[in-house]
Amino acid sequence: MEDTENTRGTQKKEEVSALLGVEHFPVLVVTVSLLSAYTILVAGWFNRKACFPISLATVLFQFALAVLILRHVLTAGPIEYRLGGWAAPWGIVYVVDALNAFVLVAILFVSVLCVIYGWKNVEKEIEARKIVSFYVILQLLITGLCGIVVTGDMFNLYVFLEIASLTGYALIAAAGGRALRASFNYLIMGSIGACFYLLGVGFLYAVTGSLNMLDIQHILPPLYENKMVQAAFVFIFVGFSIKMALFPLHLWQPDAYTYAPSTVSALIAATMSKVSVYALIRIIFTVFTVDFIRHYAGLDVIICWVAAIGIIMGSIFAIAQRNIKRMLAYSSISQIGYIMLGVGLAPLSVWGLVGAVAHILNHAIMKCCLFMSVGGFFHRLKLLDIRYFDGLGKKMPWTSAFFTIAALSMIGVPPTTGFASKIFLLIASAEASKSMSSGYAFIAILLFSSLLNLVYFWRVIERMYFVEHEHEIAAESASEGSVPSASSASVTKGDGIPRAMLFSMLVLASACILVGILWLTPLPATLVSELLARFGFPQPPEFMSVATALSSVGGGV
Q1: Alpha carbon separation from 313 to 227, 309, 337, 413 (Å, rounded)
Q2: Which DSSP letter does residue 521 get?
Q3: How far apart are CA 194 and CA 272, in angstroms?
Q4: Which of 15, 54, 78, 438 has minimal Cβ neighbours within 10 Å of its Cβ?
Q5: Euclidean distance between the first and final Cα of the chain, in Å?
Q6: DSSP H or E stretch at residue 79
Q7: Residue 465: left if φ>0, alpha if ψ -120 to 50, beta else—which one?
C-alpha cells in the first residue's frame, strides 16, 4: 500500500516537472544570466539605478530554477539537455545530477545574498562611473559559475571556467589601487591553472577522441596504464589546485581577497574556489572514477597528505595576520584542505565524499558571512586591523554577533555547519584507519586544526567583546587601510550600515546553525543516496545516522 502511494507521489511530481519543462532549466539558468548582463548594460546607459533590481531579479529567478532542478533530480533522476539536439558525444550536453544540482543551489543562494548585500555597499566602495560595468561583469561571473556546474563537456567547462575567471579578475580590480596588482597576480596564476587544465583535456581527447564526460568514463578503464592518461590526471589536478588555491599553489589568493571590494570578496570566497573544487570532484569521480584512484596504490594517500598540510599551514599563516581580510583568506586555504581531505578519503570511506560535498556548502555559508561582516566593519569604520577591534561588539552589536556565529561555526562548535563537516571527516578518517595507519594522523590533524581555528578567531572575538581599552599602537598599520580603535566610534542604531547588508548577514548566520542541524538529521539522506549511487559508492544502512556511524567506527577501531 505504501509503495503504491509512493509510486503515485513520484509520478505526480514527474508530471509537475514535465509541465514546468524542468528539462530545459539547466540551459535556462545559464542563458538568462547571460542575457541579463546585456540587459543591465543597455539599461545602465539610461538609468544607473536600474542595474541592481535587474541583477537581483535575475539571480532570484536563477535560484528558483536551481531549486526546481534539485527537486526534480531527487525525485525523478538526472536531467540531460542536448544543445541543438545533438546527442553525445558529438554535441555539448548539460547533465545535472544530485551533485551539481546541490552545488548550483548553493552557488545561487550565496549569489542572491551577495547582490542584496552589495546594493548600497557597492555605491560606497566603487566609483559611480564603474557601477554599470560592475553589475554587468558580476552577472557574467554568475553565468560562468553556473555553466561550469551544469555542463557535461570537458571543453565547454574550460570555456565557462575562463568566463568566470576573467570576470573575477575584473571585479577584484574594480577597487583600484593595490587591487590592480592583486588582480594581475590572480590573472597570471589563473591563466597557468587554465592552461594546465586545457593540456589535460587535450591529452584525454588525443587518447579517447571524446570530450563528453560520461563517454570518456566508459572509454578510460582499459587505458589506465596509458602515460597520456596519467599525465592528463596530473595536469587537471594541478590546474584546479591553482584555481581553488590548494596549498602550496595559493599565492594569488591572499591579496585577491584582501584588496577586492567587500561584496566581491564575499562572493569569490564563497563561490570561485568551491566551483573549482566541484569541477575537480566531478572529473575525478565521473571521468576517471574511483577505480582509477584505487588502481594506483597510494594516490589517495598523497591527496590526503597534501590536503592535511594545507589545513595546518593555512591556519598557521592565518594566525600571523593582522589584517582581518588576509586572515580570512588564509583561513580559506585551510578550509579547501578540508574538502580535499574528504576527496582523498572517499575511496576508503563514503563519509569522505559526504564531508567534502557538505563542506562546499558549509564553507560557502560561513566564509561569505565572515567577509560580509568584515565588509560591514569597513563600511562604517574603515576598520581592517584586528588590533583596533577593541569594543567593536558594543559599537556594531549585530554585525559583531553575525561574525561571531560564523567564527564559532568555523571552529566547529556544535550544532553549526562547521561541526557537521568535521564530524563527517572524522568518521571518514576513523574508517580509513582500518586500512591505512595515516587515518589516525588525519584525526589528529582535524582536531589540531580546530584548535588553530580557535586561536585566530578567538583573538578577534576577545577584542570585540572583552577588551575595553587598548594601549596606543604605532600608526604603522595605516598602510593596511585601518583607522584608530573602534572605541572612538559612537553607538548607532542598526550598526550604522545599510539594512540590506544586515539582512544578508542575518540569513547566513542563521544558516550556519540551521544547516548544521539539518546535516545531522536523516533529511539529506535522499541527496546522499543519489550522490553515492551516481559515483558507484556503496550505500551503508542508516547512512545519515551519525550516532550509528560513530558507534560502528568505535567498535571497529
Answers
A1: 33, 6, 10, 21
A2: S
A3: 14
A4: 15
A5: 42
A6: strand 79-82
A7: alpha
Spell 226-249 as b/e; 16+ CB within 10 A means b. Answer: eebbeebbebbbbbbbbbbbbbeb
Report phi then psi at 152, rounded to 5. Answer: -115, 20
The pTM (predicted TM-score) of the whole model is 0.87
Residue 154 and residue 209: Cα distance in Å, rounded?
12
Mean pLDDT within 400-421: 91
β-strands 79-82, 93-96: how paired? antiparallel
Q: Which cell numbers in the block locate residue 519? A: 546535516
At 70, the amino acid letter reads L
Share of the chain above pLDDT 90, in %: 41
Q: What is the DSSP letter of 95?
A: E
35 grid coordinates: 542575457
- Is 70 exceeded by the pLDDT of residue 49? yes
CA-based torsion, 402, 407, 413, 418: positive or negative: positive
Dist CA 427 CA 319 (whole Å): 27
Going from N- to C-terminal start, the domains of the chain cover 297-470+478-557
What is the C-alpha to C-alpha distance for residues 397 and 520, in angstroms, rounded to an integer? 30
Q: Which three cell numbers stand for residue 353?
A: 565524499
The DSSP code sequence of 163-226 is: HHHHHHHHHHHTT-THHHHHHHHHHHHHHHHHHHHHHHHHHHHHHHS--BHHHHHHHSGGGTT-
The length of the chain, given as a count of residues: 557
User: How far apart are the C-alpha atoms of 80 and 395, rounded to whole Å?
Assistant: 52
Report angle CA 281, 68, 118 to the nearest 5 degrees.
75
* Integer Cα distance of 500 and 385 in angstroms: 24
